[in-house]
Design a protein that fits this description.
This protein is 30% helix and 41% strand. The protein is α+β, with helices and mostly antiparallel strands. A 5-stranded mixed sheet has the order 1-5-4-3-2.
Length: 81
């Protein structure tokens, strides 16, 4: 399983997710941590390690997979209305 980390900007957006939506979002992020190349994600501009995904229908994220150290870094998080 990959550890999920957030940039400061993405972390601020994560904190802004309302409490009632946070649990399903976190469950979706755990799924990405388990399967960072699957989980409904797609490569960005052909780069296998730079991915984009919609998490639990609540947010769109862009993230970078670092397979050598087992970390997924969320670069951008945009909550959906």
């Amino acid at each position: 399983m990959y550890r999920v980390a957030y940039t400061d900007e993405a972390l601020a957006e994560r904190r802004a997710i309302p409490a009632e939506r946070r649990k399903p979002f976190e469950e979706g992020m755990r799924e990405i941590g388990r399967f960072p190349y699957d989980s409904g994600s797609s490569a960005v501009k052909g780069n296998r390690d730079r991915r984009e995904a919609t998490v639990s229908g609540l947010a769109v994220i862009r993230y970078e997979v670092s397979p050598s150290v087992l970390i997924v870094t969320v670069l951008r998080l945009v909550p959906l209305p």
